[in-house]
Design a protein that fits this description.
Elements: H1 11-34, E1 47-48, E2 51-52, H2 55-58, E3 68-75, E4 78-85, E5 88-99, H3 104-112, E6 119-120, E7 126-128, E8 132-136, E9 151-159, H4 166-182
Length: 190
């Protein structure tokens, strides 16, 4: 019986090793593609309770899941919108009145529990962190809108249990704040 050395295996052994390797690699790739647990199966909304927000701005703030839903509620001068993924609140927004010239960081602290170290934009119109933010809506004449309060209208965004990239939160609060007047938020007395 003649022994083959390891450096020159018989041709069928090389083909067998190649087939096993390719088979294992194919299985791994197939399993990775099919078992993408927790994939985003829903279409990202293009608006939140009537306020237009680009889907590409909202998408990074929403978790993976099967379905997305929203509900809106207005009470005591605050309009809230809750966005849920698989029946768990993933994002909350609000539109609310504050006394004129209230610093946006104070609004963020009162509504989303922002920390004093959260970022404020150079124009002092937005405050934001990885948990949420607040923004000052530019209404043409707020005194003609709300007869009860001589104030300013603000938006807030709060992400769910998981924090998000602060830059993504800023993009969201900017988009939501910019979209609110077009949705008629400056024309109603909450």
């Amino acid at each position: 019986m003649r022994m083959r050395d390891r450096k020159n295996p018989p041709p069928y052994a090389t083909r067998r090793r190649l087939a096993v390797t390719l088979g294992a690699l194919s299985f791994v790739l197939l399993a990775a593609g099919c078992s993408e647990e927790g994939a985003q199966e829903y279409e990202v909304p293009k608006a939140l309770c009537g306020v237009d927000v680009p889907a590409e701005v909202l998408d990074p703030l929403l978790p993976n899941g099967a379905k997305v839903s929203e509900r809106s509620k207005t009470a005591s001068g605050v309009k809230r919108c809750h966005v849920s993924v698989d029946d768990k609140v993933a994002l909350s927004t609000s539109v609310e009145w504050y006394e004129a010239d209230t610093p946006v960081a104070e609004v963020a602290e009162k509504t989303i529990g922002a920390d004093p170290g959260d970022k404020v934009t150079a124009d002092k119109r937005y405050s934001y962190s990885d948990k949420g933010g607040a923004g000052l809506i530019r209404c043409e004449d707020s005194s003609a809108i709300d007869k009860d309060v001589d104030g300013d209208l603000y938006t807030t965004v709060r992400v769910g249990d998981d924090s998000a990239d602060a830059t993504d939160v800023l993009k969201m609060i900017e988009a939501y704040t910019a979209g609110a007047p077009a949705a008629g938020e400056c024309e109603v007395d909450l």
